[in-house]
Write a structure and sequence with these properties.
Blueprint (H helix, E strand, L loop, with lengths): L1 H15 L3 H6 L31 H4 L13 H4 L45 H5 L15 H4 L15 H10 L32 H4 L35 H4 L1 H8 L23 H5 L6 H4 L27 H8 L25 H4 L6 H6 L18 H5 L3 H7 L10 H7 L9
């Protein structure tokens, strides 16, 4: 019994005194951990299997776990369970992942990739951050069209000059032979990435020394005005106002050689139709009211010659002789049509100057008692000048008796007007 107690006491003593091997075994196998890092952060007294209770990798380290990093086990990144290695920042992807681009792109993988999956990459957005952002037709082409042989993401940087990819198009360009015309290979001076044959930009104003392409001129093809091989102008003019040199056939067809050749007086560069014409400046005859709405052919021949040649804008009868003869033939009416008519319509005539031109005392009693023209003008042509004697000579004796005591009484119109300026019998 005593020997058993001694044995137990000896074992207790040996257990309480750690051996050299026991001291070595008590060191952490996880590398140099931070001070006060307790084993119970990960382990429990029930067993050594890591429970990771109380350990937050996102806050306890400088490398937050996101995406697929949350799904991997610790030893995938911490070999041999050493947690002091590797020493990484979130952007140090190449320390763990093979660079499929072989150094051809940025070392900062997170500019293009995320931690969810490597293939989750928006290619267009990535390319826009390079020295060659994609625009126009370049957006539509596949990657291997410009990066042939760049398998598995190598993506070798290419020469971004247009001619490096489009030398064949430059050599075969039509209808303008770029090689023969010695065009520069800096394609972007004229072309855009939208298309070769559209949206061509060319400083024609500078190259032509003053001929700016405006309106329809900006829409037509170069070979319409230039030799396709040499770009020599087909029409020898550098003056944008010299329309006639290029459009002589149009002028001859439309105007027969009688209009002035200063086409810009009427036309614009936006089209032949809708021409405007300063009629008063060119002819001295302003187009007013209904004249402004008439077709040119009513007054001009197809070649532009006037059918009628009035002496001025008040000379209506030269153009309207037939109208005058039909309405006023033999009437003695003056040919100053605007005295009664206006330029809106014929049947809207007014007669305001009867006294001056025909019957000076057509007022007062005469106007009140005989307001209609037909009272005195009994036939269409009867528009002769009236005097008092025309109506009053039938009772000359009676009139003499009424005026016998009037000094200076003489029975003629001039004397009548002196006493009866308003045509009334009771005038003093």
């Amino acid at each position: 019994m005593r020997s058993l107690v001694l044995s137990i006491a000896l074992l207790s003593t040996l257990w309480s005194i750690p051996s050299a091997a026991q001291v070595a075994d008590s060191r952490t196998p996880h590398g140099n951990l931070p001070d006060r890092f307790e084993c119970t952060f990960c382990h429990s007294v029930e067993g050594w299997e890591p429970l990771l209770q109380g350990f937050d990798h996102d806050t306890a380290t400088s490398f937050p776990l996101t995406g697929r990093h949350r799904d991997v086990t610790c030893t995938v990144c911490h070999l041999d369970a050493r947690f002091d290695e590797p020493k990484l920042e979130p952007g140090d992807c190449a320390m763990c992942h093979f660079d499929v681009h072989r150094g051809g792109l940025s070392n900062n993988c997170v500019q293009c990739h995320n931690t969810q999956r490597f293939t989750d990459v928006v290619g267009l957005g990535v390319h826009q951050r390079t020295s060659f952002p994609l625009t126009g037709a370049h957006i539509q082409v596949t990657c291997d069209a410009c990066h042939p042989g760049d398998e598995r993401g190598v993506l070798v940087t290419r020469d971004i000059a247009c001619v490096s990819c489009h030398e064949a198009e430059y050599a075969a360009a039509q209808p303008i032979d770029h090689v023969a015309a010695d065009f520069p290979t800096s394609c972007e001076q004229c072309h855009t990435t939208l298309a070769w044959t559209h949206a061509v930009r060319f400083d024609h104003l500078t190259a032509s020394q003053g001929f700016e392409l405006l309106g329809r001129h900006a829409e037509i093809r170069c070979e319409s005005c230039h030799d396709p091989s040499t770009l020599t102008p087909i029409y020898p003019t550098n003056d944008p106002n010299d329309c006639y040199t290029c459009h002589q056939q149009d002028y001859d067809r439309e105007h027969g050689g009688t209009f002035p050749t200063t086409c810009g007086d009427c036309h614009t560069v936006y089209g032949w139709e809708g021409a405007t014409f300063d009629h008063v400046q060119v002819t001295g005859y302003p187009l007013v009211e209904v004249h402004e709405t008439l077709d040119c052919s009513l007054c001009h021949t197809p070649g532009g010659d006037p059918i009628y040649r009035p002496s001025g804008p008040d000379d209506c009868v030269t153009c309207h002789s037939d109208d005058y003869q039909r309405e006023h033939a033999g009437s003695g009416f003056p040919m100053t049509c605007l005295t009664c008519h206006n330029q809106r319509r014929w049947d809207d005539a007014t007669f305001e100057d009867h006294d001056q031109q025909f019957f000076p005392v057509y007022s007062g009693a005469h106007r009140d008692q005989w307001p209609g023209c037909q009272t005195c003008h009994t036939s269409p042509g009867d528009f002769k000048t009236f005097t008092c004697l025309v109506c009053h000579d039938h009772n000359k004796t009676e009139m003499d008796a009424k005026h016998r005591e009037e000094n200076g009484y003489v029975y003629d119109s001039a004397q009548c007007y002196s006493c009866h300026p308003d045509g009334r019998a009771d005038d003093d």
